[in-house]
Structures are given as C-alpha cells and as structure tokens.
Design a protein that fits this description.
about 45% helix; about 220 residues; five-stranded mixed sheet; alpha/beta; three-stranded mixed sheet; globular
Length: about 220
C-alpha cells in the first residue's frame, strides 16, 4: 500500500511566511505579560502574530481581530503558555476561521500555547522551533480557587478532604476536555501521555518525530 503523503502548505501560505523576521523583530526579547496580537501583511495576505501569555478573554479578543482583518492566512505564535482553558478557546476560534498555525525558527510554544496551535487546519513548524507540554495546573482556574478559599474560610482545617475532592473533580473535568479537544482537532490522543507525565514545573519538548507521529505538525 503506497505511503500516504502529508499535505503541503498552500502556496499563498508559504509566501506569507516570507518576512516573518519582521514579525519577530516587532516582538520584544521577553514575552509580553499578556497575549498580544499584531497583524502583519506579508505577500498579499495577513498574518496574526501572537506573543505573550494566554489570559482569560484572549479568544474573544482574537475573534474581534479576525472580524476586522481580511484575508488572514495564519496565526504565528511565541508564547510560554498561560490559562489552559483559554488555549482551547483560542484554538477553536482559529479552527472556525479555517486558518493555519505556524511556529517560526527559534521560537517556543509551550503549555496553553500548544493547545491553541492545534486549532490550525494546516500546522507547520520551522527547524529550531520548540513545542513544549506539561500537566495542567488548577491555579489557572479562578472559580476553583474561589471555591477553595470559601471552603477554608468556612471550615478551616476540617476542609482538607473537601479540598482534595474539588481538585480531583476539576482535574478530571479538564483532562476530559483536553482529550475531547485533541480528538476534535484531528490529533492523536497519544499527545496526552507526555502532557500528564510531565510535572507542571517542567516542560517536555517534543521531538520532530513525535510532532509528526502525533499529527501535531501535519504539513510540510
């Protein structure tokens, strides 16, 4: 049986990659404190360059940028991560828009950024780009933190058992959301293994082979 060929990025998308050095030059050497969207015109099409940390509300802000920006060909990321749920929301906005995602050389996309990257229908990376995963943290869930604070205020030390159950329930719910999202985006569920086995304080940088095998990168 002949080996199935991987899709190629469309010619206009490849042309849009020309001049991405300008995009990187616009970003400061350190990531911004919040996700920042910069629209760049390259080769007749528009690129949205997203840099900084993912925070709540970023998906709505991206939708607003897309509404006022014609002919967007792709999203380009440089981000250390942020709120996991917002990474999923941004990824779904990208998928609905039908645009691609790209990581230029010498850039990093970690944690929540990796979920957003999966939203691209065509997903490409240059040599030297890094894609890093780790287990999610409940500290990014303000509703859960408010519940925990209220439980401690009401019950003090006796709240320990309830707090453990709250964290367990929240973790299970987010794990289910990540599994569903991964399948929804056409990516191998095996991607979750390095996610859940890497401590939140660490980053597991996926190899080029893993990126291909898991279908994280799906075009040349």
């Amino acid at each position: 049986m002949p080996r199935q060929q991987r899709p190629m990025a469309a010619p206009d998308m490849r042309n849009a990659l020309a001049g991405l050095g300008l995009a990187l030059a616009l970003g400061c050497s350190r990531p911004a404190a919040a996700l920042d969207f910069t629209v760049l015109n390259q080769g007749g099409g528009n690129i949205i360059f997203a840099a900084g940390a993912f925070e709540r509300g970023d998906a709505a802000r991206l939708e607003a940028v897309l509404r006022r920006t014609p002919n967007v060909q792709m999203m380009v990321f440089r981000s250390p991560g942020g709120v996991a749920a917002e990474g999923l929301a941004v990824g779904r906005v990208i998928r609905r828009a039908g645009i691609g995602t790209h990581l230029p050389a010498n850039t990093q996309c970690a944690s929540a950024c990796t979920y957003a990257f999966l939203g691209g229908r065509v997903r490409t990376m240059e040599a030297g780009a890094r894609y890093g995963v780790h287990i999610f943290s409940a500290s990014g869930n303000p509703a859960l933190l408010r519940q925990m604070e209220e439980e401690i205020r009401r019950n003090g030390a006796s709240a320990v058992g309830r707090l453990i159950r709250l964290v367990e329930e929240s973790s299970a719910q987010l794990a289910a959301q990540l599994a569903y999202y991964t399948i929804e985006m056409g990516v191998s569920i095996r991607l979750l293994e390095p996610n859940v086995t890497t401590a939140h304080a660490d980053i597991r940088w996926l190899t080029a082979r893993e990126l291909r095998d898991f279908n994280v990168v799906n075009a040349d």
